[in-house]
């Protein structure tokens, strides 16, 4: 790029951050875990033990583990732990 084209480029404004309700993973995690749990319970009541039984079981357990891990990372970021993941919104309001 030439110096002239860099000088003529318009100044870009910074993009504002997204609202918290659009970046919070908790509602998505609760909906996903809930859907897998409901499907698992339905399959238990029906007595099905096919592959969907195991998919829903692993989906429920995996979702709970993911949610626990993300909350653990959020808590570590909130307390300022040196090894914590960065980029979390630690505001609980």
What does this protein structure show overall?
- The protein has 93 residues and is mostly helical.
- It has four helices and no strands.
- The protein has helices spanning 3-8, 20-23, 26-46, 51-79.
- Helix 3 (26-46) packs antiparallel against helix 4.
- The longest helix is centred in the C-terminal third of the chain and has 29 residues, at 51-79.
- The mean pLDDT is 86.
Tell me the layout of helices and strands.
Layout: H1 3-8, H2 20-23, H3 26-46, H4 51-79
Task: Pick out its properties.
elongated, 4 helices, 93 residues, single chain, mainly alpha, 65% helix
The SSE string, one letter per element, is HHHH
- Indicate the radius of gyration in whole angstroms: 22 Å
- What level of helicity do the residues show? 55-70%
Shape: elongated
Q: Please provide the count of β strands.
A: 0
Question: How large is the share of residues in beta strands?
Answer: under 5%
- Class per helix and strand makeup: mainly alpha
Flag low-confidence runs. none
What do the pLDDT scores average to? 86
Number of helices: 4
Distance between the termini: 45 Å
Largest sheet: none
